Amino acid sequence: MDTKLKHEQIQYIEFLSKDIVQAKNFYTECFGWKFTDYGEHYTAFEGDYVDGGFTTGEPVKGTVLIVLYSKDIEASKNKVISAGGTIVKDIFSFPGGKRFQFTDLDGYEIAVWTE
């Protein structure tokens, strides 16, 4: 049995991207994601807890907020900025930890949290 498959948990996330090469470079630089290309219009990434992909299309703002975990939130924030992301909510505390939110180069808003 594949231990990655968890009942009623997110299994796959698919993003639209105006520029798949740019998206791959951004997420590789920020988080070390590994990609597998399936033609010119699709690339997939594989993670320990969730897999996903990028396909060509125009991103739509206001979709589901994806939240990533970080062991070093300051370092993660600096990598996002260095890769060209835009911080839209700086690091703030909430019950259970801290988080920040950024937009990637396609305009998707993503959060990063830590305990």
In short:
The protein is built from two helices and eight strands.
Please give a handful of descriptors for the protein shown:
115 residues, alpha/beta, 2,3-Dihydroxybiphenyl 1,2-Dioxygenase, domain 1, four-stranded mixed β-sheet
Q: Work out the count of structural domains.
A: 1
CATH superfamily: 2,3-Dihydroxybiphenyl 1,2-Dioxygenase, domain 1
Beta content comes to 35-45%
Q: Describe the biggest sheet? A: 4 strands, mixed
Unreliable stretches, pLDDT < 50, 5 or more residues? none
Indicate the radius of gyration in whole angstroms: 14 Å
Q: State the order of secondary-structure elements, H for helix, E for strand.
A: EHEEEEHEEE
Terminal residue distance: 31 Å
- Global geometry: globular
Assigned CATH architecture: Roll
Number of strands: 8
The CATH topology comes to: 2,3-Dihydroxybiphenyl 1,2-Dioxygenase, domain 1
CATH class label? Alpha Beta
| Widest sheet: strand ordering | 1-4-3-2
> Which structural class is indicated by helix and strand composition?
alpha/beta
Q: Give the integer mean of the pLDDT values.
A: 90
Share in helix: 10-25%
